[in-house]
Amino acid sequence: MVTIPTMAYELVGYAVFLPLIGFIFNGLFGRKIKSELLVGTIGSASVGIGFVIAGAIFFEMLAAPVHDRVHVVQLVPWIKAGTLSVNVAYQVDQLSILMMLIVTGIGFLIHIYSIGYMHGDPGFWRFFAYLNLFIFAMLNLVMADNFLLLFLGWEGVGLCSYLLIGFWYDRKFEKGTTGDAAKKAFIVNRIGDFGFLIGMFLLFETFGSLEFQTVFLQASAFPERTPVLTWMTLALFLGATGKSAQIPLFTWLPDAMAGPTPVSALIHAATMVTAGVYMVARCSVLFALAPTTMLVVAIIGASTALFAATIGLVQNDIKKVLAYSTISQLGYMFLGLGVGAFAAGLFHVLTHAFFKALLFLGSGAVIHALHDEQDIQKMGGLKSHLPVTSRTFLIGAVAIAGIPPLSGFFSKDEILWKTFSLGYGSLWIIGFIGAALTAFYMFRLYSLTFEGEKRWGHDKHPHEAPLFMTIPLMVLAALSIIGGFVGIPKSLGGGNAIEHWLEPVFEHANEKLAIAGHAAESTEYLLMVLSVAVAVTGILFARRWYATRSEVPQQLSNRFSGLYTLLWNKWYVDELYDATVVNPTVKSSEKLLWRVIDIHAIDWCVNGIARLLGWISRTTRVVQTGVAQNYVFVFILGVVVIIGWIIGK
Amino acid sequence: MEVPLQYYLFLSAIMFAIGVAGVLTRRNAIVVFMCIELMLNSVNLTLIAYSSFLGDVTGQVLVFFVMAVAAAEAAVGLAIVIALFRNKQTINIDEINILKW
Q: Angle, nearest 10°, between helix axes A342-369 and A407-421?
């Protein structure tokens, strides 16, 4: 029976499935459609409508009383087997609507941008089909009301990530092709997904259900430090480290930059990589009951934040710097989650989506203008040629560096403040150093790209990007400026609206954690001043050294050549993994599994059966002499025997 | 005086045995062929004998069928023999052993 929806949240299914329709349409007919504008419009509209629906739901929730903001929309039953019962159902609550707004909003802007960026590409329709499929999967991930549907989205975004990293599958990328980068992303994610699956099995074994509400209700009754909860959350967190590129599974994200830049912005900065953060936040009740896991999350987060930032200091590929920056910022989010400041982590997801999408799209405009040049050593002086891009990029850089009143300041400071005030002083120091490095590498990037003298060839004539690309940049720049105002802390006279908004979601988790220990406001002010000061210092040094091509960086790299080589080679993590995991796997596959087991055991068995049958046939076929009298003789002999047997009986 | 049934049966058994022996031992395809006819006719004799003995006409009807089939078979069989001879210049069935492997 079809009922006319009276509430906006009942439309959530449309928001989720419209991008799927866009994918099917563009995927099937896109090749035939000659008009890029039509393909792009269909792709963008299917996401844009989703954003409108998300906005309507959001305002409806805003108007509703707090206890009436959570809805589960059942669509169809999916799997029923024994005690397992899973539905395609979407949970609309404060957390999922926030993610939905980010995914559809940023997604819509990036779709618009892609119309300009992908102009003229023979795979234009394919690109939009994949992008729409990605949005569909991502919405399933964030809206699902159970772990299995979440996992469907989780794998779906992984697939789209793979397809889009390898979008230009025949292009060279570093030592191989973009296809190799895509495979790396996919395979590294498999390791994380393995953990996710184990976590899900444990969940089902323990709670007998995969639905969020059932699971979390039951989990609340569990005592703290139940071993199974610790293992479960650790396994789930392994999944999160894969998807969100944390130590030890971060190596795929820098390589994912092989994909087109809008993909890097949408999938590998703003949305997909925050899936791990979302998942941990969604399971906050489970994590809150496992303090060991929480500590692991916080430590991994803080160390990733610093570790990736150090690599970002010396990279020369504009997108690589941003990729390491993304890893580092994701580390901050996990640091926030790990210390129990779930809302702060999610706040950073929101602001990071704004400014990192902006930075990536800006880098895309630069790459576009310089005809696929990505090396910042060959840029410089682009400020006058790309006025809109350089200004918006600057806004993004200031936002991520943490200068008030731009958005990055509020979210990052909230995380650092929570880390400090909840008693994780050493983690705070790590995060604090990371913040300084962030400011430094972002302004190194900005100065080398847009300031100083030109270092690009005379054959290039950089020009500002078309409106399709600059409008999303301006919108995102505006959001990067004002985005932080939803989370102004109380000490600065704000209401911390976002924390308040998310409070009901994390209510149980916060009860379990019994967060206490509030340091004095004066300390908070001190920390704020400190982090702003350190950010400003970072910016000043970066500008002084790079905007005017000073000799200092060269001298420094000569003086600390060991450290520089270490950072330049990304701490040799890839080489380490190659040596310890990849090569042993490849070698043992070839030398043992193929040459010994496959050839000598499996092939021997299979061929042996064939040989045996051949031998039997060869030996028995001699009875077929071809002489009819022999057959008659045997026939009659048989008749005689049978008759004799009948008579003798 | 009526001839007893056993006489017919003995005669047909002997005919059948001669036919079998001929099929197994003779090399000439025509002779083998005639031995098969002999076996068929021994069976016919048995059918007639029982038919007469039991006063049931079914056996005689069956004999007509056998004769009709035997006539057709004779035509096909002789045609095969001729075709073989044209190909191999022999009708010695020891040498005709290509129907194998």
A: 140
